[in-house]
Amino acid sequence: MEHDANQKPLTVYYDGTCALCSLEIGYYEGRIGADRIDFVNIATVPMPEDLTRDAAMARFHVRRSDGSLLSGARAFIAVWDSLPKWRWAARLAHLPGAARAMEGAYRVFLNLRPGLSRLARRLGATPRTRV
Questions:
Q1: Do the domain assignments include residue 1?
Q2: Would you say residue 26 lies in a domain?
Q3: Sign (positive/negative) of CA torsion 127, 129, 130, 131?
Q4: Per-residue model confidence as pLDDT tens for the chain (131 residues)
Q5: C-alpha to C-alpha distances, 76 to 86, 106, 118, nearest whole angstrom
Q6: Three-state secondary structure call for residue 82
Q7: Residue 127 belongs to a domain
Q8: Count of domains in the chain?
Q9: Whole domain around residue 111: which residue ranges?
């Protein structure tokens, strides 16, 4: 991956067809420090060579400025590390065993995500991209 001098420290890949995901990303975009994050709706852009659309739709991914790709709980921790008012959560997540426990919880959440997204839609959340 080439380095762009204008590249932001963190790139977040999210599923814009998911109402719940769009709601969450909208929340993060409104936080102090979000201007340092590049939010990429994977439903509307070409994918980088090292991340397939299927993989990106299946799990939350972020890319650090060094090119490393993180997914799942570690990706959320990277986002929290980038947002000043969420650094407390990142510090907790860095405690021994916390990231592993979070990853387990995230895997459970992935099974619930389709239903939660439908519920979010019924409650008024809208995806950024129509399917």
A1: no
A2: yes
A3: negative
A4: 444 545 678 999 999 998 999 999 999 999 999 999 999 999 888 999 999 999 999 999 999 999 999 999 999 999 999 999 999 999 999 999 999 999 999 999 999 999 998 999 999 988 887 65
A5: 10, 10, 22
A6: helix
A7: no
A8: 1
A9: 10-122
